[in-house]
Amino acid sequence: GDVYKRQAEYMGKLGTFNFISIFRPEEAIARVTAVLQLVSQQKRIPFKPLMRLRAEISSKEKKHVFTALNEILIDRGSRVQAVSLDIDIKGQRLANVTGSGVIISTPTGSTAFSLSAGGSILHPKVYYLFSSMLA
Fold first, then answer.
1. What is the rounded CA–CA span in Å between residue 56 and residue 37?
2. How many other β-carbons are positioned within 10 Å of the β-carbon of residue 107?
3. Bridge partners of 133?
4. Contact in structure between 75 and 101 (CB atoms under 8 Å)
5. From CA 84, how far away is CA 90, in angstroms rounded?
6. Mean pLDDT across the chain
7. What local confidence, expressed as pLDDT, does residue 36 receive?
8. How far is Cα 77 from Cα 100, in angstroms, rounded to an integer?
9. Top-confidence residue, 113 or 13
10. CA-based angle 112:114:119, to the nearest 5?
11. For residue 91, what are the contacts with CB-CB under 8 A and spacing of at least 6?
12. Per mean pLDDT, which of 36-40, 65-69, 123-127 is the most reliable?
């Protein structure tokens, strides 16, 4: 459908879902220009803190640590068979999942890959993580 008729607010990729920006497309040039003027004048730009993820992926052979703003995708890679994943949060077992993988997303990331995998949208102000299974 026509995004303008729905009055969706976004900046960047056109679409029907978005919590990230606070203005309409027709306001984009004026808003971006205002931000650039603040930067050139070295003035403070208002910002909001966003939740980030830190993931430790461990196997028998090695351990990898990742940090992400939107989401972390753990998948089976080039393997044909399903993988079994133990998901722990701060040392507490949350779940054991078997499948092609899992997406763990923050509210910021819930409108991206998580949504396309069938997950829900989280409001940006909630302090939750969301997991979406990959079949």
1. 40
2. 20
3. 102
4. yes
5. 19
6. 76
7. 82
8. 8
9. 113
10. 125
11. none
12. 65-69
pLDDT of residue 6: 38
- Radius of gyration of the CA atoms of the chain, in A: 19
Secondary structure string (H, E, C) spanning the chain:
CCHHHHCCCCCCCCCCCCCCCCCCHHHHHHHHHHHHHHHHCCCCCCCCCCCCEEEEEECCCCEEEEEECCEEEEECCCCCCCEEEEEEECCEEEEEEEECEEEEECCCHHHCHHHHCCCCCCCCCCCCCEEEEEC
Tokens of residue 121, six digits = 């949208």
Q: Give the C-alpha separation, 34 to 60, whole Å.
A: 52
pLDDT beyond 50 at 13: no
The residues, ordered by sequence, that sit 6+ positions from 93 with a Cβ below 8 Å of its Cβ are: 86, 87
Token pair of 133, please? 């299974």
Q: What is the pTM of this model?
A: 0.61
